Amino acid sequence: MAHPAQLGFQNAASPIMEELLHFHDHALMIVFLISALVLYIISLMLTTKLTHTNSMDAQEVEMVWTILPAIILILIALPSLRILYLMDEINNPHLTIKAVGHQWYWSYEYTDYVNLLFDSYMIPTQDLPLGGLRLLEVDHRVVVPMESPIRILISAEDVLHSWAVPALGIKTDAVPGRLNQTTMITSHPGLFYGQCSEICGSNHSFMPIVVESTPLKLFESWSNMMIYS
Length: 229
Description:
This protein is α+β, with helices and mostly antiparallel strands. The chain has helices at 15-47, 59-88, 216-228, and strands spanning 95-102, 105-110, 117-120, 142-145, 150-156, 161-165, 170-174, 180-184, 190-196, 208-214. It has 2 domains: 15-48 and 57-88; 95-228, Immunoglobulin-like (Sandwich). The strands form 2 sheets. A 5-stranded mixed β-sheet has the order 3-2-1-5-8, with no helix packed on it. The two termini are 31 Å apart. It is found in: Mitochondrion inner membrane.
């Protein structure tokens, strides 16, 4: 969960988000090293009047500043491609959930169950329970079993939306007439908040997403209650 004045990412709640955080730190260290080198060279140029005749036309120097950036790009690209393939890999999901965006709410269907579908609306500020988060709480949460691979099918009924939950490392566009899919595995129980991340109209700011990760037994109890209620 994000908090005021937060400068970094939210704590990872899925293996994919952990990989994204590691890649962010890896790329940021490379950026820091390059920035420090450039600042050092600029400071040398501004503070010294000495020049070296061999540096005016040196093939070795040109080879270094051509090959070195290529190596740096490879060091950034390889882990990035690995994470991209991990994010697209879906192997034997235990559960499939279809999320459809509307103006301005989400509807969910658990396709492995019969008649387990519901709409999820934001709770108005005046109806929030004690300790509820303004503009983030919903009347029906997306309940998922912990440590289970879950496939999310995402689409929209009217305009473009985007199903995004930062703590899980998920941001997938919901496009009318198109079915996108993503996968997630929650690593621990908890509540994970997100919002529609595609400008979709006047009430775009009022389409929150709440994913509740629970142990398998609690998920089975919840699903039975929803089906027979």
